[in-house]
Amino acid sequence: xxxxxxxLVSDKLSNRGLQPLLDADNVLVDICxxxxxxxxxxxxxxxxxxxxxxxxxxxxxxxxAGKQLQAIGRAGTGVxxxxxxxxxxxxxxxxxxxxxxxxxxxxxxxxMLMALARNxxxxxxxxxxxxxxxxxxVGTEVRGKALGIVGLGRIAQEVVQFALSLGMKVFAYDxxxxxxxxxxxxxxxxxxxxxxxxxxxxxxxVPLTEATRNIIDANRLKQMKEGARVLNVxxxxxxxxxxxAEAVACGHLGGAALDVYETEPLPEDSPLxxxxxIILTPHLGASTVEAMDRVAExxxxxxxxxxxxxxxxxxxxxxxxPPTALNTIIPYIDLAERxxxxxxxxxxxxxxxxxITGHGPVTAFDMAYIVASAIRGVLSGIVExxxxxINAELMARSRGIEIVQRKMPKHERYESMIALRLTSASGTNxxxxxxxxxxxxxxxxxxLWVEFPAAGNLLLASHTDRxxxxxxxxxxxxxxxxxxxxMHVGRRAPRGESIMVxxxxxxxxxxxxxxxxxxxxxxxxxxxxxxxx
Length: 533
Prior knowledge:
By secondary structure, the chain is an alpha/beta fold. The protein is 31% helix and 24% strand.
């Protein structure tokens, strides 16, 4: 049989992992890891798939030259070296391997923890220097000690299992999982500020986002008990490196172990280099033979699936929609994601259940696109992987979130509409939305009908309907130099429960929110930001 499909491997990958592609009857695999960008651009037109790690830069120009490209596979998690937007527009599916290094990263975390506890690197250097200063390297046992975990995702859960087997007590901070979810994993779920003074070791396991950047800063390091130790095998930038170096140097912390850094390679003048109680490794979390085999195999299997017409498990970009669905579905996909982000900002407690209901003509098509988009909105900024049609429900289940979807007849108020209802540890919140004259609208919040654009900076105030409420809120915002672009109000009955929704030109400062919350008859207040997807 002739080899009708051609795959180019342009970065070094494990041959053992590539075996699914190498064994495929109709696939020819070329491994060329020394191509210049110009040589790669000349060769790419003849290939149907491209496999890379981090060295090859998959630019818009390279994708444009790949006229036959159907798939780009990244053996690893990050896709910063791939122009995903251009690939999506070109109809090229981009896949990655977010689960392949789970065990390796968890094991490296525990290795770093033990090295910290027993001063292993320092003792090794001492012996190699022909010394024998045993008394300088007295360590501490980890059995009975408390480990704090920031983020309870896939790798963190592996770390928890290792820690429990070592006899450690585990605390965790993750605002997006429920108490029941944590309890099932023998973890005590607490707030970050509650956890810091309790733990002997702190390990971070969150993606780097605007919300997590420097989440462990100087103030939070000061909250930790004297002699505690800090680990980061997740993402550089999550811990304030200068503050960490200072906390170890002044003796407040007993040490630190880092595998990732805000700038890599680590700059020569980094203060982290100046203290022997800080253990440094060069981003080795995924560097095991098994992990390298695994990520190569995962990417090979996914690329083979795409070439043979099957869905890929970890597609980074959205699948192509059928032409008959384009005009109807696309606006609702965008709307569902915004509604999901809206609910996540309204309720930041551990999520237990998400219900997605479609009303009217929008349900004539596969609801999977809308369901996946809603889940993506709810999980945005929480998980490192891109949530898409293929993995959305899997990602939700991995966070302990139950997903329910329904199709209903036309609603009495709107011809087509979608409804999201999110249940968390603190209760249930709901939001309804529709598309009116090509504009994305939210039309109800917590069963209170109030219509406003699903975009921009929003300020929501649940309050008791009283004369002068709108004036008091508007006046306070005006005095605080917050400009209002619109205001809409919904209520159940005169002088009963009401909701006020304001659009503002900029985000409302925290100090202004605190003043607004003190207005008599305000029940709750939330600031929400809905940028375009």
